[in-house]
Amino acid sequence: MGDRLWKMLTGTTVGGAQAEEGVEEGGGARDTITRVEMKLVQPGSESGSEAGLSNDIAALVLRRQFDRRKAVGYLTLIGLLIFTTAFLLGYVSFRRMCHFCSEEGELVPMYDTAGQDHSSGGSIMYLGELKEMLKKYLKEEKIENTVRRMSRMPHPPGSSEGYALASEILHNFQKLHMDHIWADSHYATLQFPSRTQRNALWMVDAEGVELEEISLDSADYCAYSAMGTATGGVVYVNYARQEDFKHLHTLGVVLNGSVAMARVGGGVSFAEKVWHAQEAGLVGVLIYPDPADIPQDPRRLGLHSNIAVSEHVHLGSGDPFTPGFPSFNHTQFPPTQSSGLPLIPAQPISANIASKLLSQLVGEACPRGWQGRLPYVQCVLGPGFSGPDGRRVKMDVYNRMSPVLINNVFASIEGKIEPDQYVILGAQRDSWGPGAVKSGVGTAILLELARTFSAMVQNGFQPRRSLLFVSWDAGDFGNVGATEWLEGYLSLLHLKAVAYFSLDQAVMGDDTLSAYTSPLLVDLIEGALKQVEHPKHTGRSILSLLEAQGSWRSRMVKPLYLNSGAYSFTAFGGVPAMELRFHEEGRVYPFVNTQLDSVGRLQDLLQGRLGEVCRALGELVALMVLRLTHDSILPLDVTSYSTSALRLSSQLNQLSAELQVRGLSPQWVYSARGDYSRAAKTLQEAIKNTDVQDERMTRLYNTRIMRVEYYFLSQYVSVVETPFRHVLHGRGEHTLSALIQHLSLLRTNPQLFHEARFRRQLALFTWTLQGAANALSGDVWNIDNPF
């Protein structure tokens, strides 16, 4: 190690010669001193004369004084050389030990690569230099040009336009001289509008006789809707959230047998709206964009009143007919389907159609805050219509299922030290409409980041870990391409995937930044925010603007949501994931999942800053990726989940009296939470005191860090029946949110509290947490708990 460091510090040829000369000079000095000492012990002269002896002694003393001066000179030179070398070695070693980059501008060196040079010039590349290189190569004009090229026309999966776009992306990757390029293909079952029967909406009388057809656009549909006919009165359900249906039950509104009229938005997906309506006993769902949520603006910045918004309604992700299995053509599947497929039909409609129907409703007035901004509508709940008794709505849905060959396109840059650890970046490629926001922006940023990192590698960057760039297919149908890939390689990825960054819908405005993320990645983003200039405020970093408004984390950091491109990676795959998004404060980009999602409208909203905003977001992601591919120890916060466990402990503590009456003790949860918190802190302390040049130890620590998210996938539920097994981000009875919701019944509605079910929920969640604590502790001899 010393020889390698010496050569790096002094050069290869000249430095080596200088080193040899220094050793020879030092050796000469030592020889001179040795000869003086030998002469001091030599016997006297044979003459025996006192004078001669005195003269010899005098000569020897003079010579000794001369040799001493010479020796002092040599010693001084050697001392300076040793001091300089030791200082430089210590300086480099210290900087190697500082594997977490200082965000104040300190340069942090690259890791040692088995003695190999880190660039063509043979010099070490520091993290600060890499950041400057990143800024230099990232080009906003290339991003904007790609968005325009990718958003010329609709390109749904299975279409000729979709295949052409996949080929173009593959060709782009090939031009970048990546280490590996490949395609991953699946046969997935997707749903499209029928070619022979159009979806229809009718007003009918009490006998079911059709009175008036309400015209629908044939392109508007909800993928994975149940097929068939639903007839009933109409009930206005606001956003169709759980709390909305609870309010309707409180008011005594008749829901069974009616058709729900729901607004787009409210923080819930179409799939969740349909699921809640189905559970409440409704027979169908109509979903419309209300001007109060999606403004209508004649300057192309709002949604026209005759436009509907399409979205899938599968309460899950991936191919719903192969849940938990990859849709490979050669694989045999059991006859099963996702429990998240709805049993009632759903159809998107425009604001004009919603206004026509809601303006005729009679019934109780809407609760406060439910009033939208539809013209000519006085907000009432229904379900009856004014006019002749018995008038109802009939909806016919005739969508068709079709097996489609989908293609995910991959490219990778192989890591130099830990190539089997992957940092993954991905973006949806398909779109029902032109898809400027839905797919164009993400794909453009993905390609530009691939080009940028490839250029950095050509100019000396040697990533420690591998980089994967992925263009996903069938994203509009519930992240089908990404989920099928996860299902195909799930047993492999939890050992290899470090983190995933979704670029889907990355730019929907330029005012506010949100991060939908796993808590493990939250600390990582802060350093990036300090270094990236806000696209709307020249000269100011994004973080400075966020901090000026108060606590930025509580406003910016949000939990992963079902339709996020990052959700499946964490909730299903146990991989830390993040999705960053620029958007407008208090304003929704209205054109996603419509035929109006074009570059022109997006540029109007951004006032011509499309390339600039995309570049800022791309730089944020790239800086985080750079840290993950550079640092010896992965910069993930393993203590972040202690807070989530503390939340449950707090709830249990507040209800301790009610629990004790039923013979339930929260002590087990407290113990598991404490074990996890201690294990996380112990690991952090051990990492701080570790020599990062010890590859064995860094490898062991990184393996434990990488698996933290995976530890929170419940072992006690089936991946087929409950794919989102994560106890904190998933969906189902096994999750923390379900447990807390059930626990709250002890005070709000005690008669609905099911003690046996709660015991099971509490036990399984607690042992999942305890298992995570045990795994984080390391080897079995490091585990010390009271069980």
Question: Would you kindly provide a brief summary of this structure?
Answer:
The chain is an alpha/beta fold.
Q: What's the structural domain tally? A: 4
CA(first)-CA(last) distance? 46 Å
Per CATH, the superfamily of the largest domain is Zn peptidases
The shape, in one word, is: globular
- Helix segment tally: 25
Structural class: alpha/beta
CATH class of the largest domain: Alpha Beta
What is the CA-atom radius of gyration, in angstroms?
34 Å
CATH topology of the largest domain: Aminopeptidase
How many β-strand runs? 18
Helix content: 40-55%
Strand portion, in percent? 5-15%
GO cellular component, one term: external side of plasma membrane
Domain Peptidase M28: 408-589
Pfam families: PA, Peptidase_M28
Main location: membrane
How is this structure best described in words?
- With 787 residues, the protein is α/β, with parallel strands linked by helices.
- The protein has 4 domains: 2-97; 127-192 and 402-630, Aminopeptidase; 200-398, Glucose Oxidase, domain 1 (3-Layer(bba) Sandwich), CATH 3.50.30; 641-782, Transcription Elongation Factor S-II, Chain A, CATH 1.20.930.
- The protein is built from 25 helices and 18 strands.
- The strands form 4 sheets. Strands 1-12-14-13-15-18-16-17 form an 8-stranded mixed sheet, with helices on both faces. Strands 3-2-11-4 form a 4-stranded antiparallel sheet, with no helix packed on it.
- The longest helix has 48 residues, at 50-97.
- The two termini are 46 Å apart.
- This is Transferrin receptor protein 2.
- It is a single-pass type II membrane protein.
